[in-house]
Amino acid sequence: MSRKYLSKCRIIHVAIIALILFGSSPLYSQESTESVDPSVLAAGEKLYKANCTQCHAINEVVIGPSLKNIEERRERTWLFSWIKNSQKVIESGDDYAVALYAAYNKTAMPSYPFTDVEIGSILDYIKVEGSKVPVAEVAAITDGGPSLNQGGSGDNISSAFMYAVLIVFVFVLGLILVVLGLIVSLLTKYISSDKEISEEDKELITSQRVNVFDLLKTNTMLGIIIFAFVSIALKTGIDGLFTVGVQQGYMPTQPIAYSHEIHAGQYEIDCNYCHTGVRKSKSANIPSANICMNCHVSIKTDSKEIQKIYAAIDYDPSTGAYGTNTKPIEWVRVHNLPDLAYFNHAQHVVVGGVECETCHGPIKEMEVVYQYSNLTMGWCINCHRETNVNAKGNDYYNNLVELHEAKNTKTPMKVVDIGGLECSKCHY
């Protein structure tokens, strides 16, 4: 048997071993989740979010225990009985049920008239979601934040695109020059090696060789280099001036780790419940600790972050008594307009019908809140130019709408058409 054949066999053996070692693990880890019917997962997700999220979370303890790996703790038949009637299981004397009931302050779990198929779909959904890495483990709370491009700033995108085009252009130009230099060099060597060519022609060819260093010393090339350097420096300086005071992506660390993803996203708490002034006043206002206590008198009382609220309002969870040694929670403001600009939340939310996500971005997905939009003057003006006036059900705008439609029937009335770009609207 030849050495060449043996080497090929060894390569094949190594490839097979590598495939087994590195390829089998992901396949086995995904087998349990990918085999579940998507329709079953969808049904389970719907039932879970409608009935379970008030008291349970998959990756953390809420009112009840976390549900991750629940089928490793109890078999499905036991879970079926527990979900349908937990009190019946407790009364039967089941050791695990009695201990679980006692561990969570004897808070009774409601009975659900689900079928075994429906409960199975919920358990399948929990298994799939539990196999994923929790967001809280991935997203660390830091003093920094996302990049300035987060939030979809058109200016930043265009600048990046311009720089990318410039770099590609310079690279292609340099590559062309190198190729041309090689061609000229090869042709020169070929012609010089030709014995039939006269000495006069050889001298002429030799004299036509270009010295790169001599070329760089010419006034024309120096002028091109200086112009390119000044242009890039000027563009960079102008871009820097336009970013002064812009804090897009700003994500400070707060004194209490509050998750909008959990409250507004997972539990679907309306923004107005905490930010009570958003429909009534200029400011959306920071929620008071009393609003937090509406829920956290009994929910997650052992959490370190909730303990910080108790300390701020001098609340004793063991007795339920409030003291007098209170101190304010020093929240760090995220969205901060300059004093020269006036913005009214009620005008935009109530009258204009603007959704919170329009300016604040995907707030229901934010573990830590950051400034999504750049909040510049140009950003506001552009919004007033493109946004239609919300005149439905508002008699104040009826005459304006009629006048606008009489003169312009093709385009709807924009904010700019009712004085949205007047200086005094935002600068008193």
Task: Name the features.
428 residues; mainly alpha; Cytochrome Bc1 Complex, Chain D, domain 2; 2 strands; 55% helix; disordered N terminus
Overview of this structure, please?
- The chain is an all-alpha fold and 428 residues long.
- Among the domains are: 7-32; 38-132, Cytochrome c-like domain (Cytochrome Bc1 Complex, Chain D, domain 2), CATH 1.10.760.10; 376-428, no CATH class.
- 55% of the residues lie in helices and 1% in strands.
- It is built from 21 helices and two strands.
- It has helices at 3-34, 38-51, 70-73, 76-84, 86-91, 95-103, 116-130, 135-138, 154-193, 199-207, 212-216, 219-242, 260-266, 271-274, 289-296, 304-313, 345-351, 356-360, 377-386, 398-407, 423-426, and strands at 315-316, 321-322.
- Strands 1-2 form a two-stranded antiparallel ribbon.
- A hairpin with a 4-residue loop joins strand 1 (315-316) and strand 2.
- Helix 2 crosses helix 7 and helix 15 crosses helix 16.
- It is extended, with a radius of gyration of 34 Å.
- 10% of the residues are buried.
Structure at a glance:
The chain has 428 residues and is an all-alpha fold. The chain is built from 21 helices and 2 strands.
Q: H/E series, N to C?
A: HHHHHHHHHHHHHHHHEEHHHHH
**What fraction strand?**
under 5%
Largest sheet: 2 strands, antiparallel
CATH superfamily of the domain at 38-132: Cytochrome c-like domain
Content-based structural category: mainly alpha
How many helices?
A: 21
CATH class of the domain at 38-132: Mainly Alpha
Cα(first) to Cα(last) distance is: 93 Å
Widest sheet: strand order? 1-2
- Uncertain regions spanning at least 5 consecutive residues: 1-33, 134-157
Shape: extended
Tell me the total number of β-strands. Answer: 2
Helix content: 55-70%
Name given to the CATH architecture of the domain at 38-132: Orthogonal Bundle
The CATH topology of the domain at 38-132, please? Cytochrome Bc1 Complex, Chain D, domain 2
Rounded average pLDDT = 78
Rg calculated over all Cα atoms: 34 Å
